[in-house]
Structure formats: structure tokens, C-alpha cells
Amino acid sequence: MDFRLFCTLALNGIAMGVVYAMLAMGLILLIRAVGVMNFAQGDLLMFGAYVTSSLILDFELPLYLMIPVSFICFVVIGLVFMFTIYWPLRKASYPAATIIATMGASIILKELATLIWGALPRSLPPIITDANGKPGILYIGGIPLQWQYVLTIIVGAILIFLIHMLFEKLYVGKMMQAACQDSYAANLMGVPAIATISATYIIVVCLASVGGFMIAPIYMVRNTLGTLQLRAFAGVVIGGFGNIKGAIIGSLIVGLVEVFSTVFLSGYKDVTVFMLIILFLLIRPQGLFGGKIADKA
Amino acid sequence: MKRKFSPEAIVLVSLLVLFIIITPRVLSGYSMNVVNIALMFAIVAYGISVMLGMGGQLTFAAVSFMGGGAYFMANMCTDRLGINMPTLPALLLTPVVFAGIAFVIGLLLLKLSGTYFTFSTIALVQVTYAFYNNYKPLFGGADGISGIPTLNLFGYKFTSYNTWFYVLIFLVIIVAVIVELIRDSQLGRSLAAIRDNETAALTMGINVYMTKVIAFTIAGALAAFGGALWCMHGRFVGSDMFNYLNAAQFIIMAMLGGVNNTVGIFVGALLVKVLPEILRSLQSYMQLIWGFFIILLMVFMPTGLAGLYEQIKANIKHKLQKKREGAGQ
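Predict the joint structure of the above. Result:
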């Protein structure tokens, strides 16, 4: 393998890893906040990709208008998601019920997308294009790198960093974490659980949807994008449940392993990724970074 | 169904008899095919019921074993590998072989608990799907394997869907009875204890690990059996059936009818397969309605239709001031 191919693959792998990390981070925020494993995470990404692409292709909004409008959409989606899938089920007697409900949500999101935007995949032009409308390419030391991948990494990294800061450093984030760990006590202290949980859901939807928007030009907007969530699950498992840092590194590993194994065993790339998880689970079930919160979901 | 001749059991049996008598006379061709597939799926869903309903362990692995059973059957009976077994011994061999395989896999995966175990089964589905979809010598790759002989029972070949129906309903009843026997056995009670409180079960001296492994083995064997029937019934096996989305569908099927209720599983499997066909005019909205239905069911009745029935029954009994039956769960 020559160096240029290696660089291109590494870039693709890291970009996909960042998208998985955005999904995985959302998953962990939800596990921490409400103890629910979300099986509709990938479909939130898919829906976000559809919403943003629709704003660009159908409403022809420029980027600076598209961002605030789509943000409003994500807030609405997040609130609706929370009040339908989580809120009525928060005291469910059968633990599997909440998980099955998210599976139902996954079906609904997929079908809604198909009903609204049709079954055919839509193509969204990359954010940076060259003069001929082809995907823009960045040359670093003679190595061609697609701008879309580079931007995905930049945007994803900034978002992940900001949300990490929010939860770890800011007072609001600490409040939210407290509310998550013991909502009863937090309520007594004057932290409204419903507000913090809503905020968590909105953040999760934003993370997933932005990921969808960034990879839409690469994968096309289609309703099967939801299956990407399985790789995010893989990242979560490798990193250890409940550990955001671990999940990010785990997702990057998944992205890289996936891309490089595509070169060597094209049809079997899923085998390498998911055998890796099974091995990880068997040898080191607590993940790379051993989560402080054991199996809570 | 503890008491031998409760009115409930009589109603159920007579409904079943009616179902057996009427269905093959009314339906034929495509619609019969749908019912038959529902029956085969019910066998797989019974496996999930043992794991999820009795033991509380969420597993996606059913489609892996179902695929394994189907491909095993296909390879044994089509002369692809130079083996040409008669169909009946091959069909009976499948659950035995896959009980063994499921036992070994269960020994590994059930070292994990709770969500970790669920994830490992998702990973298993992905791995097996990739192999089913790509490895040509054993699984025929994306083209699948066609030309599988149909079931040959002592010289009688089951060629029409209507004759298949009788075989399948017979097998479903046998499997249902086995599952019902397991529920009342020591294994079933151990599983229930593990579901309700694993630590408490451990303290009571239950071998939690082995109990789960045995449940996983039973689920695997049933899924493989269903898969073997499925490939003989359709005369074809392709990898599409064994992906993650279908794995989720099986779990929904089991949850819908009532994951811990033998009759409920049967009804759930029929509903999931047959309802979309009946409401074909609503086709484009069907899946959407389906999704809403699942969520509503989980919100209001997490124990499925069987739970709904139990609750209505309890209400009526309460109103009639009759003696309440203790079969609540």
C-alpha cells in the first residue's frame, strides 16, 4: 500500500469514526440521562440528513439560513422524540419495553422519511465543490484529500468538544449530570428533571443530525443510513459503557478498522468490525476505559 | 392453563381446531404461503420467548441460527457439497446440530450480562450475515441457494402450501407444548427467577450462567428448526432474511403477542405476517401505523396482547365478583 492511499484511507476512516463518535456520544448521553438504549439513533441521523438536504434542495436555503432553520427542526424533533418515546415509558414495568419502543420509533422515522421524501436516494452536493461542481479536494504535500471528509472531521470534533465541555466544565452541564444521576434529589434542589432531560434529547438529536448532514454527500441521503448505528454501538462497546472519551476513541477505531478492512476483504468488512466487538466483549467487557457506571441500560 | 378443563382452555382449543379446519379451505396460493411463513416464524419466536420472556435476556441472535439452520438444510439436501440426505433426517438433525453450536456460542456470549450480551448478539448477527451474504462455497453468496427439495415424509412429497399448513401447525403445536412444559419445569422457574432478580436467583443457588446457556441453546435449536422448515417451504434460501432488521422484527413479533405467553406468541407471529397483507390497501402507511402501534402497545401494555387480555379478564372477573384466578402473569 502506498503512502497516498494510506493517507486517503486514514482520512476516510477518521471521518467515519467521527460520525460514529457523534452517534455514540448521543447514545451515552441518553444512557447516562435516562438509562435507555436508543435503537433509533441511526434513524435520527438519517432523518437529520433528510431534513437538512430538503432545506437545501427543496427550499433552496443558503447555508447561513439553513443552519438556524434546521436547528429549530432538530429541537422540535428532539422534544417530540422525548415526549413520545421516553416520557410515557419512564415508569414502565417491563425493562425491555423502553428498548422495543425505540425500535418502533426507528420504524416510524424510516417510514416517515420514505413517505415525505420518497424511496429513491437523494444526492446532496458536497459543501465545498471545485469549479466543475465535483467534490472539492484539498492538497496537502501532494496528497489529495476530499474536503467533505476534512470538514466532517472538523465539524464533528468541534461539536464533540463543545458538548464535552458543556457536561464536564460548565455549571449547567453539572446540573444536568446531577439531574441524571438522581432526578428526585435534583428536583428537590430546584433542578427541573424534565428540562434537563429535554435538553439532553435535543443535544442528542442535534449531534446525530449534524452527522447525517455531513455524510449525506458521501453516502447519499437514503433511508438505510440508520444501519450506521450498529457501528456506533460497536464504538460504545469498545470504549466501555457510560464513558464518553472511551466511546469516541472506540468509534474512531471502528471507523479505521472498517475502512482498512474494506481494502483487504471487501465483502467481509462487517466481520472484522463485529468480530472485534465480540473479542472485546469476551476479553475486556468493561471496554478500553472501564466505565464507572456498570451495566445500567 | 393450569386446570385441565378450564373454559379458557376449551375456547382456545376449539379456536385452534376451527383455525386448522377453516384456513386451508379458505386460503390458497399466496395467502396460504403468508400464513405458513407466520407459523414458521412462530417457531422462531418461541425461542425468543424462552430467552426474553422467561429469562429476560434480550437476544438478536435468532436470525443467525435461523440462517444457520436454513443453509445447513440447503447444503445437506441439494448435493452441493456431495451430500444428499433425505429431507426428514436432515430436518430432524438440524435442531440437534444447532443446539450444539448454540450451546458453544452461548457458553462464550453469556459470560456477558444484560446490555453487553445484547450487543454481542447484534455483533453475531452482523458477522453471520456478512458470511451468509459473501461466502459462496457454503452459502451461495448473494444469489442464495435454490432448488432445495421439499419435505418428503415417507414417500409423500409436500408440494402445495395447503399440505404444508398441516405439517407446520402440527409442529407449532408441538413446540408450543414443549415451551409450555419448560415454563412449568425447574428450568422455567429458574429463568423467571433470573429475569426478576439475578442476584436473588444466585443467592437461591440457581446456576445463573448455565441456566441462561441452556435457554440460549433451546432458542438456537428452535430458530434453526424454523429456518430449516423455511428453506424447504420456499425451496430457496437467501441472505436477505437474516439481517439485523429482521432480527428486530422477530423481537417485535414476540413482544407484540406477549413475550411470556405461549398463545400470545402464536397470535403475535400471525399478526406481524398477516396483518400487513390484509391491510394491503394501506400499504404505504402500513409500516408507519405499525411503528405507532408498537409504541402505543409498549406504553400502555408492555406485556403485549396477552397482557391486555389478562387485564381485561381480571377486570371482568372483578366486576362479576367471581373468584379471581391466579394466572395473572
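Confidence is low (pLDDT under 50) at residues 291-297 of chain A.
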